[in-house]
Amino acid sequence: MKKLLNTLYVTTQGAYLAKDGECVAVRVDNEVRLRVPVHTLGGIVCFGQVSCSPFLMGFAAERGLGFSFLTENGRFLARVQGPVSGNVLLRREQYRRADSPEASAEVARSIISAKIINARRVVQRALRDHGGKIDGSALDNEASHLKDCLQRLQQPVSLDVARGIEGEAANGYFGVFDHLILSGGPEFRFVGRSRRPPLDRVNCLLSFIYTLLAHDVRSALECVGLDSEVGFLHRDRPGRHGLALDVMEEFRAFVGDRLALSLINLGQIKKDDFEILETGAVRMTNDARKTLLVAYQKRKQDEIVHPFLNERISMGLVFHVQAMLMARWLRGDVDGYPPFVGK
Questions:
Q1: Residue 246's closest CA among 337, 153, 142?
Q2: Which tens digits make up the pLDDT trace of 19-43?
Q3: Which domains does the chain carry?
Q4: What is the three-class DSSP state of 248?
Q5: Are the C-beta atoms of 25 and 34 separated by less than 8 Å?
Q6: Angle (CA) 322 317 33, round 5°
Q7: pLDDT digits over 129-163, tens only?
Q8: Banded model confidence at residue 194, pLDDT cuts 50, 70, 90
Q9: Higher model confidence: residue 67 or residue 76?
Q10: How large is the average pLDDT for residues 230-247?
Q11: Which residues contact 31 (CB under 8 A, 6 or more apart)?
């Protein structure tokens, strides 16, 4: 299972990936900079101007190894994957449940509830650890607001109502997110979410981490044979991986937001690690991306106690556990999908 933790991120512009026996060779200026055995990898992510040998792609596809291609600043472009594994009956059941408003609303409420709990714990963690440095009243009020949103989701509300509660909770949470940023100065001021493109440093950081999360969650879902494009909370849209976005909601605050806050508050990411383009868009420098990727991989190595299994596992395997639990719910092995709630 350890190989599931290992993702090769290639950020060096002009790099070329090729097959070298049973290994992936990364060449820069015709010089081999890295050689990694294929059997130790769970995925390959290429940023910007990184190209791959077709022989390597075919070799990787035969072994279930997928490639993801992103722009230099982390926007997803495409994914190359071999034949889909898993039972066709599992995917047929996934489609049936997705077509059912009741079943979709049920699993969506579970996922949104976990998302709100994890967001609330980020707020409470800040109050506990930094109560004397931050606006405690604003965070206390938001913690109460998120609790109210969570209580409303305990009722059998429709999918549209659940989405409305999720939006309300997200607005409130990001409305106090600036209070969680304790260092970095005015350059790291956060006034609200902005996407495509991100318009400030914090949004740039969050969007990049969410892209990494989406890659890992999508890979985990496809490993168990689920269709990552057919979701319950996120409905069908061409080119959108709805189920991956569904499951990723559980990890946004626990993994993504906490990692972003740590990088800023500990001074690992600084104002000069970003470039502001003429359009107003903000992107990270190559060195900053490498810093983030190292921190993200280190976070995946951390061990936690999984709330459903009650076993200690590495964070990088939690995505795969959640994918398996989703498959078990669809097969009828468990009564409902148990979303991930961190501590």
A1: 337
A2: 999 999 999 988 999 899 988 887 7
A3: 2-80 (3.100.10.20), 88-331 (1.20.120.920)
A4: helix
A5: yes
A6: 135
A7: 776 777 778 898 999 999 999 999 998 899 999 99
A8: confident
A9: 67
A10: 88
A11: none
| SS3 assignment, position 211 | helix
97/101 Cα distance (integer angstroms): 8
* The two three-digit tokens of residue 113, written as one number: 């509830």
Could you give the CA distance from residue 63 to residue 37 in angstroms, rounded to a whole number? 12
Q: Return the beta strands (E) in the chain as ranges.
A: 7-10, 16-20, 23-28, 31-37, 43-47, 51-52, 67-70, 76-80, 274-276, 282-284, 303-305, 312-314
As beta bridge partners, residue 16 has: 27, 51
Query: How many residues belong to the chain?
Result: 343
β strands within 21-130, DSSP E = 23-28, 31-37, 43-47, 51-52, 67-70, 76-80
Which position has the token pair 């034949």? 83
Phi-psi group of 69: left, alpha or beta (phi > 0 → left; psi -120 to 50 → alpha; rest → beta): beta
End-to-end CA distance of the chain: 24
pTM over 0.85: no
What is the spatial distance between Cα 102 and Cα 176, in angstroms, rounded to a whole number? 33
Distance CA 326, CA 261 (A): 29
How is 74-131 classified by DSSP, letter by letter?
S-EEEEE--S--S-HHHHHHHHHHHH-HHHHHHHHHHHHHHHHHHHHHHHHHHHHHHT
Q: What type of residue is 285? A: T
Task: Name the DSSP class of 229.
Answer: T
Cα dihedral sign for 46, 239, 195, 123?
A: negative
Distance between CA atoms of 260 and 198, rounded to whole angstroms?
A: 14
The pLDDT score that the predictor gives to residue 3 is 40
